[in-house]
Amino acid sequence: MQAARPDAPIAKNVSAISSNADDGSPESSSSESITPGSQPFSNAAIKPAIHGTYETARQRKIWYGLVAASSGAAAFDAWTTRRAVSGNYGIEGDPLLRPFAHSNAIYAATQVSPAVMDYLGHRMMTSNHQWMRKLWWVPQTAGMGFSLGAGVHNYGLVP
After folding, report:
1. Given 29, 49, 104, 129, which is the most exposed site by the fewest CB atoms within 10 A?
2. DSSP code of 140?
3. What angle do CA 76, 80, 120 make, to 5 degrees?
């Protein structure tokens, strides 16, 4: 039967080296102890490289709902604008969208503003500032409100 073996090698200490120094072996010629090349990590708390997300699952669902609603409101605005302009019941009031008012490109052009508001709302939702995290829904809701208001106005122009 074999004797129990240690799990790890046993470190040499100064007394073991000094006792071997008397026998004249080459490995015992130095009288200093063996030290590791690096020191162990401290047990102090380490600051994470990136912060965790502040958004909750509920906020994420609401954000996706506002994405769909604001894009839908912008599409409704584009449809009613195209309908009113094609029937000569009015003109496009926004000078940036006026070149697109007589073509189907207005549907794509009106989606730029909701995309910017969606991005801004998401950045506010995940911001480090608490006041921004409380008001993250405002850009999307405001953009959706303006699009719905313009769409209802345009819809009332055409008999």
Report:
1. 49
2. H
3. 40
